[in-house]
Amino acid sequence: MCGIVGYIGKKNTKEILLSGLKELEYRGYDSAGIAILQNGVFSNFKAVGKLVNLEEKTKEFKTNDFAVGIGHTRWATHGKPTELNAHPHLGEHSYVVHNGIIENYAELKKELQAGGVTFLSQTDTEVIVHQFEKNMKVLKNSFEAFKKTLKELHGAYAILLVTKEQSDTIFFAKHGSPMIIGINEQNENYFASSDTPLIGHCKSVNYFEDGDYGYAKPNEIVIFDKTDTKKEAKLTPLSQNRLSAQKDGFRFFMEKEIYEQSSVISDTLMGRINDKEVIFEELSPTLFAGINEIKLCACGTSYHAAMSASYLFERYAKIKTSLEIASEFRYRDPIMTKDTLFVVISQSGETADTLETLKMAKAAGLKTLAICNVDNSSIVRLSDATILTRAGIEKGVASTKAFATQVSVFWMLSLYIARLKNSMSEDAIAAQISLLREVPAHVKVNDAMHERIKRLSKRYLHGHGFFFIGRDVFYPLALEGALKLKEISYLHAEGYPSGEMKHGPIALADPELFTIALLPKYLHYEKAKSNVEELSARDSTICAISQLEFDKADDFIQINECSHYMLEFFEMMVVLQLLALEISIRLGNDVDMPRNLAKSVTVE
What we know:
This protein is α/β, with parallel strands linked by helices.
């Protein structure tokens, strides 16, 4: 998730781009850059780290009169946060900025290099500008070259491209990543990947739809849709409230992030799966050579994702897997053997307890792997290998999309290892990959479902506590559901394996004990159902979440039809997140900034 801005006009282009990027810095802050074309000459500035570093680099640079400019603030997906990897990316006479992931970039890059093109960065984005210039040499027309380039790109993108061949124009395209254009009374054109940079500059904007592409120049905006049919800009009034614009109309960032899960999981999967196998270019197969055990170590929500992974690794990859809470592991005298791959999981990459366990594993000579959302974080720098989850910045303290992308990565990784170890047939792996492709659709929030949960939430504001119960991989999901509710509602909640209720906790059952029961159709349904019936017989209030209606439930939330238990897992995950959200909102709490918590736990 990166931030993009663009401007065509006579005002101070540098300041407009920098102020726009400031509004988008929450979308990425490992590097930033701008490129300005004025009087046929490009000026380009890049800086690593937060935007203040770019502001310092450009303080002597001035713009006046007409110019065309594009800018970008980066959240790394391909390549480390360096100046060379920062956008905008340069061809011979063009610059490009891009948000998203070009799935076939490696194939395009290989062809371009064979044709003599030299690449400066490790990014997928750089192929766009070189492919455009390759097409320009043949077609001799900027727009036709841009159009042909788009047809050659596979993946998700929002693109702005500027070329000396047409120095009053910005070419744009949107497919899967947000992009809008705004205009004002002076007929200036402003581009951005969110509303906020345009507030104060524009009164009306056009929200591009997937497949839209075209160009803008002074007094002209030309748009084509995905069928190559020309269309008119559909201008709508722009809200002038910056905070609500950042939230894109949602009440809280957490709510927005729940809704974003479909697109970020698509980013997580992109370029990493084909029809037959999982591809992690960032991993060497030798990482798993001589490995007989995987040890997963994490805290909080990341620990629940790791617990989910332990089921998948042993079921699919057939490899012994153990699980550790980082804050406990670091103070034990653990036995660590060199045939163990030590895997740490952290959203921020700065979690203090998890970082210390990683140092312990390194000191013991173990191979290490990080599952993380933040490139160049402490954990990433220290690990032997890293898989980035590509969740984008998560502003809500209670994690949602970070958990979803971690579990998605672990599902892929279990199949990757299964192929290395020949523990699954090619057909079985292909079937799992086909299911993985369905995940983004299954985490899309259904408005009717959300409305039902919103209405239901008013029944769960009192009582003496919640049990979230599930079996197998749904046990860690129950733990995560309970944690979400605790974090933002301040109500007491516990997650339990369904089969453990009769071993003590069922003593608490009464009408004031709320049981949130996860009942997947395709995994131990009858067993889990029997456990819930035991609670129902003791008069516990039951809220069942399932594909199949359950007549012993006081409340029932029906998920969409699914063909596999992991798809049910993701469907139920969204329900649990929304239930916690709506209960918390009814209680009048600040959902995004719950008391006593911080986003990145960098102390013991």
